[in-house]
Task: structure prediction
Amino acid sequence: MKHEEDVILSTKDLKKYFPVGRAFFRGGTAVAKAVDGVNLDVRRGETMALVGESGCGKTTLGRLILRLIEPTGGEIWFEGVNLLKLGDEEMRRMRINMQLVQQDPQSALDPRMTVKASVAEPLIVHGIAKGGNLRETVLSLLHKVGLGEEHLNRFPQEFSGGQRQRICIARALALNPKLLILDEPTASLDVSVQAQTLNLLKNLQDDLGLTYLFISHNLSVVRYISNRVSVMYLGNIIEQSETAEIFSSPLHPYTKMLLSSVPVPDPNIQRQKFAIKGEVPSAIDPPPGCRFHPRCPEATEICSRTKPELVEAEPNHLVACHLC
Result:
C-alpha cells in the first residue's frame, strides 16, 4: 500500500465539462464531460501510465493538472499544495516543477527559433541563467538528450522527428522539474526511434529522479516504460494497478478487451480474444450506471442503473466494476 508521503501528485474528484454546440450559444446547458470525477495518485519517482481509447479524457486530464485549462470542479494537489488555491503568479512559479512534453514535436517548436533559443526560453523567462552561463546551461541540457554543440544554432526543420522530440525534452528539463507529463511522446515517431526515446526517458528518470505521468494508447510502450497503469474510459478511471498485474490479470472487461488487441510475439501463446463492440458513447450524454455497460458482454441489470465505485478488489488493484 502507498503511504501519503510517497504521493507527489493527487487529484480529488477532478472534473472538466466543456459547453458544446448550439445549446451553449442559446444559453443552454449542454456539456461534454471530458473528465468526470477522477481520483489519481502518482508516487514520487514512478512512471504512472494513463491509457485508453482516443477521446477518453487522457490529454484533458494532463492539461488540467498543469492548469493549462481550468477544471469545473475537484482538487489538484502537488507536494501538499492545492494548485487551485494559487494565483496566476504563484502557479507560474509552481510550473517550474511540472513540465509538459507534447505529442507532436514539430508543432511544439517555433520554426523561427534556433535550438539554443527554444531551450533557453524557459531559463530566460524565469531568470535562471543569462549570458555565457545561459549558453553552457543549454549545451548541458542538449548533452543530456544526446545532442551537441553543433546543433545549437540550427532550426527545428533541420532535424528528424526523433531529434525534435529530444529538443522538446531538453526544454522541459531546463527548469529542473520534479514531474513530467508526457502526452503520447512517441506517437509521431518511427518504431526504432520510439525505442531510443523510451530508453532516453528511462535513463533521464534514473539520473534526475524524475516522476512521469505517461499518457498513451500504445499498450506495448506502456508495458515497457511504466510502473503502474490507470485505465480511463469516457472521463473515468476504471482500473488501476501495477503494470505487471494489469497485463497478467486484468479485472475490468474493458481492460481485458484492450489487452487482447496487443500482439504477442510468441506464436505458441494463445490469448483469449475480446472484441469491443459498438462505438464509444458521447461524453455529452454518457450512459447511466457503468459507462461501459452498452459495450460490455458481461453487463447485468445493475450495470445499467448504478455507477460502480473505484475500489480495491485485490491488494493494490483498484477496479470500478460490479462484477469484480
User: Anything to note?
Assistant: The mean pLDDT is 91. The chain has eleven helices and twelve strands. The first strand starts at residue 7 and ends at 19. The first helix runs from residue 21 to 25.
